[in-house]
Amino acid sequence: MDFQSFQEKYNVKFKNEQLLKQAFTHTSYANEHRKSQIKDNERLEFLGDAVLELAVSQYLYRGYPLMSEGELTKLRANIVCEPSLHKFSVQLGMDKLVYIGKGEEATGGRSRPALLADVFEAFIGALYLDQNFDATLNFLKSNVFPTIEVGAFSHAMDYKSSLQEFVQKQGQQVSYQIVNEIGPDHDRQFVAACYIEDRHCGEGKGRSKKEAEQRAAERCLTALKQTEQ
Amino acid sequence: MDFQSFQEKYNVKFKNEQLLKQAFTHTSYANEHRKSQIKDNERLEFLGDAVLELAVSQYLYRGYPLMSEGELTKLRANIVCEPSLHKFSVQLGMDKLVYIGKGEEATGGRSRPALLADVFEAFIGALYLDQNFDATLNFLKSNVFPTIEVGAFSHAMDYKSSLQEFVQKQGQQVSYQIVNEIGPDHDRQFVAACYIEDRHCGEGKGRSKKEAEQRAAERCLTALKQTEQ
């Protein structure tokens, strides 16, 4: 993959291709080419980090209207963190475009998670500078947010706490009950029901009672969210 | 001050005044008025924090083209932190507009730095939602960034390190020399000169040798910045 096909594949078109290339330039490469005054991606990474924080914050704020600030903050930290950004970077094939120094290449720098996470942030920073916030948001909507939607971060979401906080604000109580156990012993699944006061408001299935309750709370939150809108 | 005069004073006009009021609503007030379903400012604070991070990052990125990523990050952390946000909040008179619960009011909550810093962030979040990023940036440019420009954060800026990093990238060396000491013993001031290789590129004055060198490095960086543009 080259920069041309990368841009075509992800439907972006940089006005300033130098900026695009700078986003992929590790400091080890810039150091090896000092005379040509090549700029590395570190300052772009600084900017991109903030662009990404806002894009993800806005996405979560709008997408999860019932989630508390604490829960939102936790989820954001799970999305904007090195392991996630590394994953996005590899998914997009960014590792193939990185300019790194010879020493760094020899020691496997091209696949180093921290380096690739930085490249992802630097790319976001470059896109923001070259175009604007909305264009950057569109890129993320097409290429990154779907990963969030398929539940890749659901391990970080504590639906029971979210629901608890929400119903407490209304002065109500939430409770759970295991209403069914299915499957043979070695492959047992539980079904939990969730109640607000005495009203049944969702069921969930899981390999543990806790997981079943989390799924039930999630369904219940989704239902409440639809009612509120 | 009421919300009307606050908006007039700072030249903002909310389309959705509820959102403006929500930004000033501490959770203790919302808890005391549960029946009227008043929303507190916590989710707005989550969003505002990210808006502020990006606004400040962009401001620093553009304003300090020679500053390294490490230096930018340090400076941003010094601007987007509780003591600074508390100061901005008080400067803008936000403390007078806060809705807090009776218990919180009785224990001096209205002047609590953390509470006021949160209100500042929530206001920024509300402005962003009600309008857009550019409008929020304009508000900050008029009312907050000037505080940065007058050097309120210069204690956080290590000009000597910035200059060092910059000249090293060009393969050059920087050095300092105390060229004068002025004033009587009890009010001594030092004058430092800064050299890149052997070229004199700035002088600075200070009450300690270190301070004088920092000021000299700052002058030198400003000169280099002008040359680069």
Automatic annotation (TrEMBL), chains A, B:
Tagged with keyword rRNA processing: yes
Keywords for this protein: Cytoplasm, Endonuclease, Hydrolase, Magnesium, Metal-binding, mRNA processing, Nuclease, RNA-binding, rRNA processing, rRNA-binding, tRNA processing
Organism: Allobacillus salarius
Record lineage: Bacteria, Bacillati, Bacillota, Bacilli, Bacillales
Active site: D49, E121
Domain DRBM: 158-226
HAMAP family: RNase_III
GO biological process terms, semicolon-separated: mRNA processing; regulation of gene expression; rRNA processing; tRNA processing
Domain RNase III: 3-132
Main location: cytoplasm
Subcellular location: Cytoplasm
E.C. number(s) listed in UniProt: 3.1.26.3
Gene Ontology molecular-function annotations: double-stranded RNA binding; identical protein binding; metal ion binding; ribonuclease III activity; rRNA binding
Keyword Hydrolase on entry: yes
SMART domains noted in UniProt: DSRM, RIBOc
Function: Digests double-stranded RNA. Involved in the processing of primary rRNA transcript to yield the immediate precursors to the large and small rRNAs (23S and 16S). Processes some mRNAs, and tRNAs when they are encoded in the rRNA operon. Processes pre-crRNA and tracrRNA of type II CRISPR loci if present in the organism.
UniProt similarity note: Belongs to the ribonuclease III family.
Subunit organization: Homodimer.
Name of the protein: Ribonuclease 3
Catalytic reaction list: Endonucleolytic cleavage to 5'-phosphomonoester
